[in-house]
Amino acid sequence: MLRVSGDDTFRLFVELMSGCGMRNGEAAAVNVNNIVAADVYRINEQVNQTTKKYGSLKHRRHEEYRDVPLPARIRATIEWYADKHGTADGYLLRHPKESARPFQPYLVQNQWQRLERTQSLDVYEGMTIYSLRHFFASNCLSHGIPITDVAEWMGHKSIDITFKIYRHLMPAALGQAARVLDLGLAA
Predict the structure, then answer these.
(1) pTM, 2 dp
(2) Among candidate residues 122, 47, 116, the one with its CA nearest the CA of residue 56
(3) CA dihedral defined by 97, 98, 104, 109, rounded to 10 degrees?
(4) 172-182 pLDDT tens trace
(5) What is the DSSP letter of 57?
(6) Which residues contact 38 (CB under 8 A, 6 or more apart)?
(7) For 88, phi and psi rounded to 5 degrees?
C-alpha cells in the first residue's frame, strides 16, 4: 500500500499531495504555521526547482497564497511528523545533508523510483508521485465538489486548465442538468 511505503518523509508527501492537492515543491515547503484553521491549510510558498530555495507559488506573486481543505487525516499526519521529527521555524522538512537548506522534492521522486525498482511500491504502470495530485482533484470532483473550487485549490492559472484535464470525471453533468431543468419547467 502506498501510504505505508518508504520513509516518514515519503509518507508525509503522499498524504499532502493526495489529501491537499499540493505540488511537489509545495509539499517540500510544508509548515505547521500554515494551518490556519482546523480544516484549512494555507499554501504560500514552494521550494523552487531551479533556485532550490523557498519562493512564491506558481502563477502567484510573492505575497499571494491559496487556502486548501485540510482533512483531519492530513492534519494528524502533519502533527505526527512534527512531534516525531521536530520543525525548523515551523518547516517540517529540511535537506537531509544540510539542515539550513530547504528539502528538495527530487529526493522523494528518487525514493519513489527506488521503491518502484525493488517492487516495494504497488502502483499502476506510469504512475508518478505527481499522480497523487491528480488523485486529489479526481476525488474532489467525483464527490460533487464544484470544479471552480477544485481549480482554485489546485492553483491552476485558469479554470480552463482544470476543465480540460478533469472534464471526463463529470460525464453525468449534462443529464443531471436536463433532469433539474425538467423539474423547473414542470412547475
Answers:
(1) 0.86
(2) 47
(3) 10
(4) 666 777 888 88
(5) P
(6) 70, 75
(7) -125, 110
For the chain, give the number of residues: 187
Number of domains in the chain: 1
Set of cell numbers at residue 136: 486529489
Sign of the dihedral defined by the CA atoms of residues 78, 83, 86, 89, in that order: positive
Per DSSP, the three-state class of 87 is: coil
According to the 3-state scheme, what is the secondary structure of 104-171? CCHHHHHHHHHHHHCCCCCCCCCCCCCHHHHHHHHHHHHCCCCHHHHHHHHCCCCHHHHHHHHHHHCC
Name the DSSP letter for residue 31: B
Beta bridge partners of 62: none
Centre a 10 Å sphere on the Cβ of residue 93 and count the other Cβ atoms it contains. 25
Q: How does DSSP classify residue 34?
A: G
Supply the CATH number for residue 57's domain.
1.10.443.10
Distance in angstroms (rounded) separating the CA atoms of residues 30 and 27: 5
Copy the grid coordinates of residue 146: 464544484
Classify burial at 12, counting beta carbons within 10 Å of its beta carbon; exposed 0-12, middle 13-18, buried 19 or more.
buried
- Range(s) of the domain holding residue 108: 2-186
Answer whether 48's CB lies under 8 Å from 54's CB.
yes
| CA R_g for the chain | 18
> To which residue does cell 480544516 refer?
39
Left (φ > 0), alpha (ψ -120 to 50) or beta: where does 58 sit?
beta
Provide the residue type at 186 as one letter: A
pLDDT digits (tens, 9 = 90+) for 8-35: 999 999 999 999 999 999 999 999 999 9
